[in-house]
Specification:
The complex is a heterodimer of chains A (about 110) and B (about 110).
Chain A: E1 4-7, E2 10-13, E3 19-25, E4 32-38, E5 45-51, E6 57-58, E7 67-73, E8 76-81, E9 90-97, E10 103-105, E11 109-113
Parallel strand pairs in A: 2-11
Antiparallel strand pairs in A: 1-3, 3-8, 4-5, 4-9, 5-6, 7-8, 9-10, 9-11
Chain B: E1 3-5, E2 9-13, E3 18-25, E4 32-37, E5 44-49, E6 53-57, E7 60-65, E8 70-75, E9 84-92, E10 99-102, E11 106-111
Parallel strand pairs in B: 2-11
Antiparallel strand pairs in B: 1-3, 3-8, 4-5, 4-9, 6-7, 7-8, 9-10, 9-11
Classes of the chains: A mainly beta (about 110), B mainly beta (about 110).
């Protein structure tokens, strides 16, 4: 089945620095990928839809200048958390779908900002 | 917009059967999916219902009634490893490629 790879699996960074998270579709092409954020004991909240070759579509309330998304190829989307602060500490998960199959998720990235 | 409601937690014993309900409100309906997520892990796909009725996959079954905007996930012969969070989700096709919107999740605890 479709496989989505996400790196790194965890990262610790200092407040004010930027962190890049990669999401790759390993055996299929994904014109669209999705980025979610999940706080402990809560649901997955969609942050943005990443579109290959065009701008990402952000959900209401998500700062596009803070969460930069780049989808430069059909198999890679990146999420950069800029000027990270402790409140950005969370579990970030990407997803893609190889139609007509289900949505497949990456293994997630646990970000801790200190 | 889309909204889904499911119980926040359910407890059951090993070997038992448990049902997790999900009601939804959507502008357009394109199927109800179920995902399992263990602590610290990625959500994994369990089941999908596009039409009314029951879908069975091993110990897991999922049911949908579109007229009632309601579905459920049925887990049989519960095992300790089934302790996890379970999410129902619907597709929103308002943007290209669609997006998956999740319910708040049901934390299932399986006791010995």
């Amino acid at each position: 089945g479709a496989v989505v790879s996400q790196h790194p699996s965890w990262v610790i960074c200092k407040s004010g620095t930027s962190v890049k998270i990669e999401c790759r579709s390993l055996d299929f092409q994904a014109t669209t990928m999705f980025w979610y954020r999940q706080f402990p004991k809560q649901s997955l909240m969609l942050m943005a839809t990443s579109n290959e070759g065009s701008k990402a579509t952000y959900e209401q309330g998500v700062e596009k200048d803070k969460f930069l998304i780049n989808h430069a190829s059909l198999t890679l989307s990146t999420l950069t958390v800029t000027s990270a602060h402790p409140e950005d500490s969370s579990f970030y998960i990407c997803s893609a779908r190889e139609s007509p199959g289900p949505y497949t998720f990456g293994s997630g990235t646990r970000l801790t900002v200190v | 917009g889309q909204s889904l409601e499911q119980p926040s937690e359910v407890t059951a014993v090993e070997g038992a059967i448990v049902q997790i309900n999900c009601t939804y409100q959507t502008s357009g309906f394109y199927g109800l999916s179920w995902y399992q997520q263990h602590d610290g892990g990625a959500p994994t796909f369990l089941s999908y219902n596009g039409l009314d009725g029951l879908e069975e996959t091993g110990r897991f079954s999922s049911f949908l009634s579109r007229s009632d905007s309601y579905g459920y996930l049925l887990l049989q012969e519960l095992q300790m490893k089934d302790s996890a969070s379970y999410f129902c989700a619907v597709r929103d096709l308002s943007n290209q490629g669609g997006k998956l919107i999740f319910g708040q999740g049901t934390e299932l605890s399986v006791k010995p």
